[in-house]
């Protein structure tokens, strides 16, 4: 895209400010900026129309039961046997979502570099690797690990893994790839810049992982290795089991095209997405989309009707993913603190949210599947997410849970 085309386009979209000071930029900066402009997602930006935000609609919601802890206990051997076999045959890969910004933790480092140890170093990344080493040992084959980073944290993440010698994992079984970035806007929908020659961008949410994986040529790599299933997991849950043989086995034996680990909510309004059926298909309704009536509904036995919350640990069947990836995921508009540069050239790092980011979410992938196996895990043993420094779902609460589970910190 050349300057004139960019100018016409931006003026038409009421974003003429983006090219202010263009003549003062170096040639390299000019071409970076023009490239960013040519890649702008105007459909996403159109979702912010002044103060009015277009929200996705919700269909007809019904409850969805889970394979519960009791049933899993009763069929543990059968599930584990099937899971270990698939793992041993190299049919399962692990995929770590580590492209987020972790803004709530307030650190500039990748979240996985957070040290959860107290008297020794135990990094979040290390917890995941140790878990995978254990599974690899149990099945007799190294589970391939794919790590999604973003432009903002890729270099540092890869440097850290190298510095720590991959925490003992075979380097040839770990691959990194970057997710795409998307431009952020202020509350009036005006595109923000982070430098005079650069738009303010942030990672595009955790929903784009499969297309980014494919773009990086890694779907081909998986196929060459004979991978048929991907265990997708979030970086911040330091208690989770990855490629858990029983979960893998239960999902495979169910004949469904995905599995979703769930925990029982501790209270009706707990801030987690709830697994249910929407218009007959599995779906996750986020806590902020849920009415009080839905959140508080109970069965005849007094239990919550919508009791199962997702913990971002899913198994997906590869061939199904290839089918659904063509479908466009809805874009969510999220209020965030977005660092920017003013027209006068002053860099601002806001203390409060000052605009919107656009994200696609993994939860929306579930809606595109015909079925999923909700698989209940004991939350005190498998769910310790680190979102904040203190309070609920924090570094403090995760440390407490790790210690309760016998992990020496
Ligand atoms: P969160 O929704 O907690 O987002 O991510 P976050 O960016 O880590 O943290 P905040 O909201 O800024 O404080 C859930 C999982 O999805 C990944 C995260 O790395 C985490 O594993 N994620 C999130 C991505 O990989 N990319 C994204 O763009 C967003």
What does this structure look like?
- There is one protein chain.
- The chain is of the alpha+beta class and 409 residues long.
- The protein folds into two domains: 1-39, no CATH class; 40-404, Spore Coat Polysaccharide Biosynthesis Protein SpsA, Chain A, CATH 3.90.550.10.
- Helices cover 32% and strands 21% of the residues.
- The protein has 15 helices and 21 strands.
- The strands form seven sheets. Strands 6-5-4-12-16-13-21 form a seven-stranded mixed sheet. Strands 3-14-15 form a three-stranded antiparallel sheet. The protein has a three-stranded antiparallel sheet with strand order 8-20-17, with no helix packed on it.
- Helix 5 crosses helix 10 (245-254).
- It starts with a helix and ends in a 5-residue tail after the last helix.
- Bound molecules: uridine 5'-triphosphate.
- The site of uridine 5'-triphosphate has 20 residues, from loops.
């Amino acid at each position: 895209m050349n300057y004139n085309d960019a100018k016409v386009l931006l003026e038409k979209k009421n974003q003429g400010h983006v090219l202010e000071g263009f003549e003062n930029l170096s040639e390299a900066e000019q071409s970076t900026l023009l490239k960013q402009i040519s890649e702008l997602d105007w459909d996403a930006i159109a979702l912010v129309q002044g103060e009015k935000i277009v929200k996705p609609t919700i269909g007809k919601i019904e409850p969805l039961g889970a394979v519960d802890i009791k049933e899993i206990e009763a069929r543990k051997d059968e599930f584990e046997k099937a899971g270990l076999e698939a793992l041993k045959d190299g049919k399962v890969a692990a995929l770590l979502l580590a492209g987020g910004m972790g803004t709530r933790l307030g650190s500039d480092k990748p979240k996985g570099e957070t040290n959860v140890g107290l008297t020794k170093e135990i990094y979040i990344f290390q917890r995941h690797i140790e878990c995978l080493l254990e599974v690899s040992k149990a099945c007799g084959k190294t589970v391939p690990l794919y790590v999604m980073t973003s432009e903002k944290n890729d270099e540092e993440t890869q440097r850290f893994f190298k510095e720590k010698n991959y925490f003992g994992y075979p380097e040839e079984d770990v691959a990194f790839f970057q997710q795409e970035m998307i431009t952020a806007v202020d509350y009036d929908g005006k595109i923000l810049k982070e430098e005079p020659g650069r738009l303010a961008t942030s990672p595009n949410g955790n929903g784009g992982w499969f297309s980014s994986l494919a773009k990086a040529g890694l779907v081909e790599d998986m196929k060459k290795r004979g991978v048929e299933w991907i265990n997708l997991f979030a970086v911040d849950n330091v208690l989770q089991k990855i490629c858990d043989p029983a979960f893998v086995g239960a999902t495979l034996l169910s004949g469904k095209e995905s599995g979703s680990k769930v925990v029982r909510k501790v209270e009706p309004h707990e801030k987690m997405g709830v697994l249910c059926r929407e218009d007959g298909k599995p779906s996750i309704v986020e806590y902020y989309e849920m009415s009080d009536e839905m959140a508080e509904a109970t069965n005849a036995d007094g239990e919550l009707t919508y009791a199962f919350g997702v913990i971002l640990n899913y198994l997906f069947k590869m061939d199904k993913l290839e089918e659904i990836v063509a479908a466009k995921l809805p874009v969510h508009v999220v209020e965030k603190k977005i660092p920017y540069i003013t027209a006068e050239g002053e860099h601002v790092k806001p203390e409060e949210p000052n605009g919107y980011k656009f994200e696609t979410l993994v939860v929306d992938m579930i809606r595109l599947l015909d079925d999923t196996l909700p698989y209940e895990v004991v939350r005190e043993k498998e769910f310790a997410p680190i979102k904040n420094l203190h309070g609920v779902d924090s570094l403090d609460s995760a440390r407490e849970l790790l210690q309760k589970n016998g992990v020496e910190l």
